[in-house]
Specification:
The chain is 68% helix and 0% strand. The chain has 160 residues and is mainly alpha-helical. It is elongated, with a radius of gyration of 23 Å.
Length: 160
């Protein structure tokens, strides 16, 4: 008779399995960039080698995608009224490749000038700045939201 013992899970297998389960739980809630997910898993105590293997596997199975993350992040931040510069920087900070960022930003159907006008209307109503100081204050606010100087000058007029 052949001795049929169940295969023993090694600590290595268990660690990687736990890491994968944690990663899938995170991905069930929202999209993540690869670098962002790896950092999050390591902060939870998973070994870097397990994180790297799990992330590679999730990417190969198309469960994890920097492109999908960038598209979802872009739409989310547009709804919050942020401009293209701020969105681009945030995507770079979580490790999304610049080519993916460029592609996603260039293929989105958003009229940034209209987005900027909505932010001005929401914050200041339809009033014009009465002083140069007020114009600068508004321009600074819009710049912090992620709009370029050219976009701001196109929308904000100072006629006094």
């Amino acid at each position: 008779m052949i001795d049929q013992q169940p295969e023993q899970n090694t600590a290595e297998d268990t660690g990687e399995s736990d890491c994968r389960q944690q990663a899938v739980r995170y991905l069930a809630r929202r999209e993540y960039a690869q670098l962002e997910l790896g950092r999050k898993l390591r902060r939870k105590g998973h070994a870097a080698v397990h994180c790297d293997r799990v992330i590679a596997e999730l990417v190969s199975q198309n469960l994890l995608s920097d492109r999908r993350y960038a598209e979802a992040y872009l739409q989310s931040r547009v709804r919050k009224g942020l401009g293209p510069m701020r969105i681009r920087v945030a995507l770079e900070e979580v490790g999304v490749d610049k080519e993916i960022i460029d592609d996603v930003m260039n293929n989105v159907e958003i009229e940034w000038t209209e987005q900027l006008k909505r932010q001005v209307l929401k914050k200041y109503g339809d009033t014009e700045p009465e002083t140069y100081k007020e114009w600068v204050k508004r321009a600074r606010f819009l710049n912090k939201r992620g709009f370029s100087s050219e976009q701001i000058q196109t929308v904000l007029e100072f006629t006094h």
